[in-house]
Structure formats: C-alpha cells, structure tokens
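From the thread on structure requests for the teaching lab: each student submitted one protein with a one-line request. Submission from student K.M.:

"Model Phospholipid/cholesterol/gamma-HCH transport system permease protein from Luteibacter jiangsuensis, tokens only."
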Amino acid sequence: MATAPPLPGSATLTRDTGGSRLTISGDWTLAHYSDLQRRANELAGSIDTGIAIDIHQLGALDTSGAFVIAELLGSSRTQALAQDDALPPARRALLKTVGDAIDTYCTGVKQPREAGFVATLERIGKAMQGFWKQTAKLLAFIGITLQGFLATVWRPRRWRVTSLVSHIEQTGLDAVPILALLSFMVGCVVAFLGATALASYGASLFTVDLIGFAFLREFGVLLTAILLAGRTASAFTAQIGSMKAREEIDAIRTLGLDPVELLVLPRVLALVVALPLLTFLAMIAGIVGGGVVCMAVLKISPSMFLSMFQADISLTQFLVGIAKAPVFAFMIAVIGCMEGFKVSGSAQSVGEHTTSAVVQSIFVVILLDALAALFYMEMDW
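Reply posted by the TA:
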C-alpha cells in the first residue's frame, strides 16, 4: 500500500461560540519554512494567552519548524506545549529546547531611538568621555616614554645610534624638498596678501615685516609640524602597527627587550632633532619666497629687503618660533608610536589607527600653538 504524501504545515485560526482555537497541522520542516514563516507573520498579533492550541495533527517537525512555532506562540506557550503527553518525547524535547533557546539567546534587536535633544546630549557625553580616555592614555604613554628615556640616557651602551640616524634621515632629510617648496609658495602667498591689503593704507613696505613676523613666529614651525604630522606620524603608526599585527613586538618582549627603548625612543629623539632643523629651513624658504614677491611686485631690492628685515625683526621672534619645535616634535612622535601600539591584528586596524594618528597630531599641534600664542601675548614676547 502506498503511503500518503507529506502535507505542508499549516496554522488555522477558528473562532466560534466555544472560543478561539489555533490548529497546527502538517509537516513543519525546513522544506516549508518560507510558507510557514509567511503564515506566522499573518497570524502575528492574533494569538493571545487565552487561545486554545491544537497540535495533535502535527506531522513531521524539525528545528526550523519548531522555531517558527516558538516565534508564533512565544517561549512560555511553546514550553507549555512541550508538556503535552500526546506528542512524542522527541518532539516535546525539541519544542522545549527551542523555547529555552529563544529565552536565552533571542533577546531581540533594540530599536534605535529617534534623534532628538536627549540623543544629541548622549552623543556629546560619549564623545567627551572618549576624549578624556584618549587624553589619559596619551599622558600615560608620555610618562612611559620619559621613563624609558631617563632609564637609558645615562647608559650609552643602550643607545640605538644606528636606528636614531636612520630615522633622522627618513623624517628630516627626506622631507626637505617638499617642505622647502611648500614654505616658499606660502611665503609668496603671504607677500601677495600683505601687498594687496597694505596698499590701500600706503604701507606696502611693511609687507617685509609681515613676512618676517609670520614665518619666524608661526608659519615656519606650524607648516613644518603639520607636514610631519601627516608624513611622519602616519609612518610611525604604520611601522609599529604592522609589527604589532605580525606579533613581532611580542617576540621582542620574549627576547627580554623593551619595545619602548627599541622602537619608540629612536623615533621620538629623531623627530625632536629633525623638526627644529626643518623649521629653520621652512623659515628661510618662506622668507625667500616673500622676498621674491616683494622684489617682483613692490620693486623692493634684495638689499633693501634685508636691511628692513634686520632693522625691524628682532632675534626674539626667531626664538619664540623655534622654541615650539621640540615640543611639537615630541607630541607628534609620541602620538604616532602610541597609535601603532594600539593596532589589533588586521590591516583595517592599521589603517584606522594611522588615520587617527594624523588627526590627533594635527589637532594637538594647533592646540599647543594656540596656547603658546596666548602665553607669549601675556608675557609680551
């Protein structure tokens, strides 16, 4: 005798004078999952706690079908059905397991709240919390770096002279062409702006003073620091981050070496040496660019330009600008190395922390420059 073909699962809701009844019949298996899920969605909201459940006509049942039943009836009703003696023990155990799993793991997705004033305040609060955490980490890493420096400065045998010279070449010498060209062009722009703005007051000659003050106090060191923040901080992060991803830093610790002494100090000291020298070069290039424009537009001869520059610009302006260079260099190098150590283990993490190093370095440089400008103004320097 041929067996009857399997019937697809169905759920029928009937209402009469005796009350509402949900009849579950047929095969609730993976083969009918899409139809069963569609029917369950149609009945969603119609199943209350007082409705009677008739499950005696249930055919085959697997995990996918039990999950749809549990979604339709809820975890508590599903577990109650699992106590029905009319069902085989295997199906009761399956319903109970799925019902327990829904309670344990299917907690539901939290619906995003609508944007509003409270949500804006929450985002501001989280941003401020992240800012203070990042500041605390930066201060801690600065402390670790200074501790490592003090531990090795009195021990010449532990100095990494070869690494130091190599990093000075990479961060300083290789940056000379782009920095000189950039400073020269900015000097030309400042001279053009000064000549245009001061011409209406009949004071075009004071363009020389504008160029001197701008590059000796601010533009020389600021252009250099921003350029190295994008060029060098990112390189430090990528180099150390790649070593972290390949577990080379763990190998260094296993060998009994200090990663800060081996990787951080040579980079920090190299940038502290290179950035003041590059700042001096940027000042010279910017002043030369301004002098070329003054000679071409204002017809100021080089001898007159130099004599006015010497008479009106004091040595204090140069010292005020160059004094900021070591501080900027230290912060750029520390931030670049710190972000490298924060890399997890993927190429995406290397890219994210490299970007973060550049952004943080430029932000810190501009912040410190603004604070220095306020300090110099109060000191009347």
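TA comment: The chain has a mean pLDDT of 83. Residues 207-245 form the longest helix (39 residues).
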